[in-house]
Amino acid sequence: MSVTRPILALCGLLFGASFALCTEPVRQPNGPGKAPPELRAGYLERLKEQKASIPASLPKLVQRELAKLYEDRTNAFLELLDNDLLLFDHPINAEVERIVAVLLEPLPADERDIRVFVLRDETPNAFSIGNGTIMFTLGMLERVQNEAQIAFILAHEVAHERLRHAETDMLNYAQSIHDKEFQKQLMSAYRSTYNKVEKLQELLIGFSLDKRRHGRTHEYEADSTGLDLLQRTNYQLSAAVTTMDVLLACDKEYFSNTLDLHNAFSRTGDAFNSDWILRRGPSLGLSDRERGALDDSLKTHPDCELRREVLGSQVANLGGDRGVAAIMEAERFERLQLMARMEVIDLYLYQGNPARAMYLSLRLLEDEPENAYARAVVGIALGSLHHYQTNRVVGKVLEQPHHTYSDSYNLISRMLGELRLKDLAALGLAWMAEDRANGTDDPELLLALAITSKATGSTDETKEYADRYRELFPEGRHIDRLKRWVDAPVTNK
Amino acid sequence: MRKLLALFMLLSSLWGMAQSSSIEGVRKMYLRNSGPIQENNQLVGYYTFYMYDKVDSKTNAYYLTLTDVDLNTVHELKMNKPKTTVLVEMIYNGEVFSLLFMDYKEKAVSIETYDRKAKKVGGKVLQDAHKWELMRIQAAGESGEVNESIFPLGDHGFVKLLTVKHDKISYELRAFNNDMSKKWTYTPKESGMMETANIVWTSDKYMLVTIMKMKNVFDKPDHAFLLLVDTETGKKIFETKMTHSGNNLSVLNGFIDPDTEHIYLVGEYYAPKDNIITDKSMGLYAMQMDLGGQGVMFNKFSRDGDLKKLAPADDKGKQDFGFVFFHRVVRTKDGGFHLIGEQFRKTVSGAGVATQILGGGRSNTSSFSLKIDNMVVAKLNAALELNGIEVYEKARTEILMPAGAAYWSPTLMAHYVRQYDGFDYAFTITDPEKDRYFASYVDFDRKKGESGEKIGSYVGTIVHNAGTTTLDKLPIKSSSSAYRVLPGKPGNVVLLEYFRKEKRMEMRLEKVNY
Prior knowledge:
The structure holds 2 protein chains of 2 kinds. Chain A has helices at residues 7-23, 38-52, 60-82, 91-104, 138-143, 147-162, 165-177, 180-191, 196-231, 239-249, 261-264, 275-278, 293-297, 304-317, 330-350, 354-367, 372-390, 394-397, 407-418, 421-431, 433-438, 443-456, 459-472, 479-487, and strands spanning 86-87, 115-119, 126-130, 133-137. Chain A is mainly alpha-helical. In chain A, helix 9 (196-231) runs parallel beside helix 14, helix 17 runs antiparallel to helix 20 (421-431) and helix 22 (443-456) packs antiparallel against helix 23 (459-472). The radius of gyration of chain B is 23 Å and the shape is globular. In chain B, a hairpin with a 5-residue loop joins strand 31 and strand 32. Helices cover 9% and strands 54% of the residues of chain B. Chain B is mainly beta. Chain B starts with a helix and ends with a strand. Residues 1-18 of chain B have low confidence and may be disordered. Chain B has 5 helices and 36 strands. Classes of the chains: A mainly alpha, B mainly beta. The interface between A and B is large, with 45 and 54 residues.
């Protein structure tokens, strides 16, 4: 995973990758891919080195705390790995690594030991966890407008690494938590007979405020150092400023229009019932939870508008904007964003959130009506919900409406909450009717046909599609899903 | 120290997921301190009241958490209360939440109102609450059907039914504005009798109340009275004795149709000289009445004729309607009524007899018990004619009766069991469009399945949808210290679980299959 390879060789390799990207249509997501076998061992080895590097001059308790923090960090990383939340062997990885390589290229060789991972997460985010490790989410890739913005975001994270912010934070935390005065206060609060929780909460708030204050200072430093890294490349400097607009927009719904469910389910004809979306019982109808001044003060990052202002001045001080918005072609960038959307859908589908997978697929079908993968996911989601509902566990997988979700997504949640078993079966059958009639050898469509057939009780058809999948894809990704959703007997009906 | 640090870092006490809601740091809670919030007879959310800290030797700090029907937390409110405080009831009238508290040590009842942003609007201590009021509160179970004594009056106030003592024990209806200022008080004229009341239905215009009048605590009233009050002014519109053609009538449920402004009542009818508390009813009646208290339509259905004829036959081919306690009357979209109840019968209890013998006659229990059997739905059409009776089998529950109950009638025992929330019936949720209802009960099935596995408890839900009625059985799988089934938005039930060891409370939605 190292990106310290010579940049030219990397670009040469990526030329091939980009060519493939331009010619091959994006049919389906790759899924998490396989992590390099040496990755886990490498991180465990690094953990040993980190523990060994803890200064003996520190108090023993602080040393122990630091060692525990290093362990927690490594375990958190390995947990991402074990839960298939990192993307490997994917064109997106290649592009993100290439951009980091461009940023690191002007630096001395001993400062280039930084690894970037793509996190399979819809939340737009990027962060450094220290120890030379940076995370960049699929959601962030979906939101950015050009390659230069990716470059600035990564430059900002590289800056955190170069400035050793995570390491400093951990040391500060270990020292603060074992500070004699703080320990005295903590024990006093813990031993209190009265107001124990309040006293502990007060301590926690004071502690958090101090931590967040440092956090905000770090962000300004990382912006400034990141801009410095950016100016050593050919990327557009104004990307630093426009990235702040992207981050500001991250709090808003990604899709600007309201999803028209009648239109989205038009292929199902009469199987779609308007009552499902019109029914809406009363609820408390309170406004969103009011965030007080304290909540704002606990934010780790300063306001993006302030950061934009500061970065704007810094760009002006550097002589104004220059550079290019992208090295890769616009078409390739758009295809990467499409891949990111499909990988996010894949994540939700297989990690047990059929409602979100269905919603994002319907959104994708708005842009690409012929996208077979998105079509299949809607069928799979309907079929899997039928399976969960039959087995009386749908309450554990079906997301309910929430004030932080978009109106369109809440509409889908409400609709799925209204669907009875027979509605799910009929809607799934109607949704897949065309593919059933035309026949298919597409793996996701075969899974969708098998599971929607099972929902209708059609045993022969279910077996036919499941057998076809096993015949064509004996090592396919959906073998396990067929076992779980199609072969398994119904329990707790 | 590690444990202490972990505790410190995990102190952020509240979090919520979309399909479930979880609260950490719940040091002490009673399941009765949580429940549904209704507005205009529709479920709008839930409240949870729990202790999280000690303030001093006499005071605890509590959180009141409000969640919407999707289990999202919408407000949290911290309040300090005497440690002997319980939250008894809570209603929402669209503008304010009204909370009825009782301090069981000080024997004080108080009401506080909070607006939609959880800001306190008003408060009042009811100094003159009679000990019966306190007993009623203490005895009240965990009924999923809310509102025992406070009811909304539109969105501009609410009414509290209070047991008071003047010359004799009586009742008062005290209406308050949202800020707890007095709106009006209805005090019945001295009748020389003990009077107890039960609010049947309220709106911003009218209130229906049933009243029992007794000479003394040992007296059993022959008949009930129906009182209609103008809720704008607190003036009585009429009070009428509930009889028809010589038959005494009990009122199980009722409401006023907002379109026709006619009163609809259902209940049981009794032989002319029979007592509505202690005697066996002759059957059911349904009645339509105008706002002057004059009958417009009346139909009765005899237990041994109409009801028996429609009752499903048992394994031996025997048809018997038996005794049924009706918990709820639902108006359906076609204008008909569905009466949801539970069969019961009085029996001699083996356990009760054994306790009597072992206790040498000094036992707190009697030799009798009430056996609670199947669920029953009696269906009436818009013309108040009986259309059919459906019986839904469930496991039998046996409730041991207290000492002195040997001479009680089965109906009186059923009222006693209802007071202590001993029936298996839990709640009924209706759809705003009135085309669906979901009547749920908890079935403690001790039988074993075909392969010998224990069936265990489940939530049974009688679903009426688009004219047809079906039954769903949702197994309860819980590893919690205690759980409670609450109504969910239409088509769902909510399972509230408390994990004592982890100091955690969870609520989750489960869908009903129909």
